[in-house]
Amino acid sequence: MSETQIRLSGSGGQGLQLAARILVSGLALEGRNISLSQSYEPTSRGGLSRSDLVVGSSTGYPLVSAIDYLVILDQIAVENSLGLIKNDSTVIVDSERVDSPPDGAHTTISLALIQTAREIGNVRAANVVSLGVLAGLSGICSQKSLLQAIRDTVPARFIDLNLEALARGYALVSAEKSKDTQLTAVS
Questions:
Q1: Rounded to an integer, what distance in angstroms lies between the CA atom of residue 103 and that of residue 124?
Q2: Contact 149/18 with Cβ under 8 angstroms?
């Protein structure tokens, strides 16, 4: 299997570190090799936050160098990934908080990730909504494994919220795929 490089990015307080741990747990349930690196600015809210995953049969170099899938939940995170996005990458952005997605030959998909989380009662669930979109588009990890990972990783009082957020992310992908046109791409 070839290597897949993923970055989850946004601002502090959006739960990107948790989303990455859920994805790592789901991938581990499937017997995958994963390298995870995380970075966040010292401010608790509003500073840049990112989690990078390298997934493959072996992960000799643990840092992303050519991103296949990029999730951006806040405009603050756009510039940090420039130069790492491949031409055949898929970039998933929140339509509310990312006004100027990265330019390039890659596919950019703008979805109402934060609004979807708001609709289920907690804007901070946008991280798991975006995880459902990422998994639904990429097929990197099965929904079954991610459901179990949420049960294993998330505090008990937030499990139901995160299960709903994951389902809503997958539903966003299904809704886009069922439209007459291909996924809305902005280049």
A1: 27
A2: no
CA distance 169 to 19: 13
Q: Which amino acid is at 149?
A: A
Q: In this structure, what DSSP letter does residue 181 have? A: S
Specify if 184 maps to a domain.
no
137 occurs within a structural domain: yes
Torsion angle in degrees (nearest 10) through CA of 28, 32, 59, 6: -80
What is the amino acid identity at position 91?
V
pLDDT digits (tens, 9 = 90+) for 8-58: 999 988 989 999 999 999 999 999 999 999 887 655 566 888 999 999 866
Note the pTM of the prediction, 2 decimals: 0.90
187 in any annotated domain:
no
Q: Which of 172, 97, 175 is nearest to 128 (CA)?
A: 172
Token readout for 92 is 């998933």
Q: If you write DSSP's letter for every residue of 127-139 in order, what string do you get? A: HHHHHHHHHHHH-
- Show the beta-strand stretches assigned E in the chain: 4-11, 33-40, 48-56, 67-72, 85-94, 107-111
On whether residue 41 sits in a domain, the answer given is yes
